Structure formats: structure tokens, C-alpha cells
Amino acid sequence: MANTPVPHGDAEAHRKHTNPVLVFGILTIATIFEVVVTLFHLPQNVIVPILLAVAFVKAGLVAAYYMHLRYEKWIYTAIFITPALFAVFLIFTLAM
Amino acid sequence: MNQTTVAPRPISAEAVHANENRKFGMWLFLSSELLIFAGLIGAFVLTRRNAFQNGLEWWEPNAFSLALVSVNTFILLASSLMVVLGIEAIRVNDQRKLRRYLILTAILGAMFLGGQAVEYSLLIFEEGHSFADPFGSAFFTLTGIHGLHVFVGVIWCLVTLMVARRGTFSSYNYTTVEIFGLYWHFVDLIWVIIFTVVYLTN
After folding, report:
1. CB-CB under 8 Å, A34 with B13
2. Residue A4 falls within a domain, yes or no?
3. Residue B48's Cα: distance from chain center in Å?
4. B81 contact residues in A (CB cutoff 8 A)
5. Whole-model pTM?
6. Are residues B147 and B154 in contact, defined by beta-carbon separation less than 8 angstroms?
7. What integer pLDDT is reported at residue B148 of this predicted model?
8. Contact B74 A87 (CB under 8 A)
9. pLDDT at A64 over 50
10. Tally of domains within chain A
């Protein structure tokens, strides 16, 4: 029935989410790792892929757990992942 | 009256459908924003490469700059956590906690902008960079547009806070907060990439 009251959104809202403080901890540790790695003055062709890989993992964590893509409809992931892949390709191509 | 004790009112199926459409629209907007930032980050990387190839002056962050921007990164990550905790609070109809986390988000966002202002003043007045040199043009354009997004986010957060103070949101109706959260996390996500590309892979 059209006017039947329903809770916000769908089952997503009531599913158990990963502890956001844990995700924040991982993001902070990854950031510290990135800064520390740069202090070792490794060759550019070694350090740049490592740093970019960590950055994209961090971005993925933000998208998956903070933006709730992991729990949302697949269409949102499809909308976001398409330009994201293009962006990753562009930045990797120009950075390498 | 303590608003956390007010029983939430369910919303109609039409309103739920409308909220889904708003979220869908937000995701479309964010995907277009992603492409804008991909272009800006790409332009920065290309300008840096050209500067190195042509022997032009480029900037290398000193210890203070790196420490400042690392703290700023931590601040932005913490602000994202505040938004998540705010949304979790309103999911269980805790409006007071939502308002508290929104205030913290706005404060952290303003702190990030303050840190960026300090960084800009050092670069411009101490190191003499400007839009005229290759580094300045690429750096200020990229980080400036990101900073503008943070500024818009802080204003948006304060508007959301004002709406929250009227008791509009509940465990049945918090899509407006979610949509603001999507924008804020997106700005955080972009900063994660900018931090690495601009400051760490020099």
C-alpha cells in the first residue's frame, strides 16, 4: 500500500556495520605508515607504487565503510566505481 | 524537553522512495566530482613531471610542512568518523548525540581550513610561491578547490545542524544527514589521494 509507514531506507539501515572507530584506526595507521615510508628515501620507482597502493586502499576503506558502499545497493557502487577506475588509471599512468 | 525521548514518527513509502532518489542523485553528483578531481590531480602530476624534465624549480615539503599536513589529514579523517558516529546516533534516534557530532565535524572542518591557511601563508610569504610559478599554479588550484569543498562542507554541516536542532531527523528520517555524510566522506576520500600524490610522492 502506498501510504504504509516504513522505516528509513531498506534493510541496509538495520544491518550491523563494521565498527567505524576500527576503520578510523586502520586509516590513521596507514597514514602514519605512508609518512614513515617517505623518510627512508627509497627509489621513486619503489616508493611511488607503494604509496599509491596504500592511498587507494585507504580511499577504498572510506568508500566501503564510511560511505556504506559495502552495504548499499549495487547500483551506487557501479555509479561510483566507473569514474573511480578511470581516475586510478589516469593517476597511475601519469605518475609512473 | 529532551528530544532523545520523543518517539520517532514513521514516514510514508513515497517519502522513502523520494529519499532513495535523493541518494541516487547524490551518488551521480559525486561521480562527476570524482572526474573533476581526477583531472586536477592528473594536471598536478603532469605539471610536476614537466617541471622536473625541464629543470624548473619545484617544491619539496620540509619537516614542518609534512607534520602540518599530516595533522590536517588526521583532522579530516577524524571529522569523517564524527559524521559516521552522528549517523549511527540518529539511527537509534539519539538526536542529542547527532547534534554533538555535527558540531564536532564543523569544528574539525574549520580546523582543517585553518591548517591550510597556515600552510598557504608559509608558501606565499615565506617561500615566495605564487600562481605564477608551475608549482604554485598546480598546487594552489588543486588544494584550493579541495579547500573550497571543505568550506562548502562546513557550511552544509552547520545548516544540517540547524535543521537537526528543530528535531526534524529521526530513526525513520535521516536521509538529509546521510547525504551530507556522503559529501563529507567524499571530500575526505579525495584528500587521502591528494595527500599522497602532492606531499608524499614528490
Report:
1. no
2. no
3. 25
4. 20-21, 23-24, 66
5. 0.90
6. no
7. 98
8. no
9. yes
10. 1
- State whether B28 and A79 contact (CB < 8 Å): yes
Q: Is B7 domain-assigned?
A: no
Distance from CA of A20 to the nearest CA of B (A): 7
- pLDDT digit string (tens) for A18-41? 899 999 999 999 999 999 999 888
d(CA B48, CA A55) in angstroms, rounded, equals: 19
Q: Flag if B196 and A54 touch (Cβ within 8 Å).
A: yes
pLDDT tens digits, A2-24: 344 445 544 454 456 789 999 99
Please compute, for residue B85, the number of CA atoms within 13 A of its CA located in the half-sphere on the CB side. Answer: 19
Which chain B residue has the Cα nearest residue A27?
B77
Q: A28: domain range?
A: 18-95
> CB under 8 Å to A27, separation ≥6 — which residues?
A58, A61, A62, B77, B192
* Position B74 pLDDT exceeds 50: yes
State the Cα angle at A71 between B186 and B185, rounded to 5°.
Answer: 15
Full residue range of the structural domain in which residue B126 is found: 15-200
Which tens digits make up the pLDDT trace of A38-63?
988 888 888 988 999 999 999 999 99
Complex-level ipTM beyond the 0.85 threshold:
yes
Q: Which residue has the cell 524537553?
A: B1
Number of compact structural domains in chain B: 1
Structural contact between residues B48 and B55, judged by C-beta atoms closer than 8 angstroms: no
End-to-end CA distance of chain B: 55
Domain assignment present for A6: no
Nearest CB neighbour to B30, from listed A44, A80, A90: A80
- Choose among B16, B199, B109: nearest CA to A48: B199
* Best to test chain A binding among B21, B26, B28, B31 (most A CBs inside 10 Å): B31
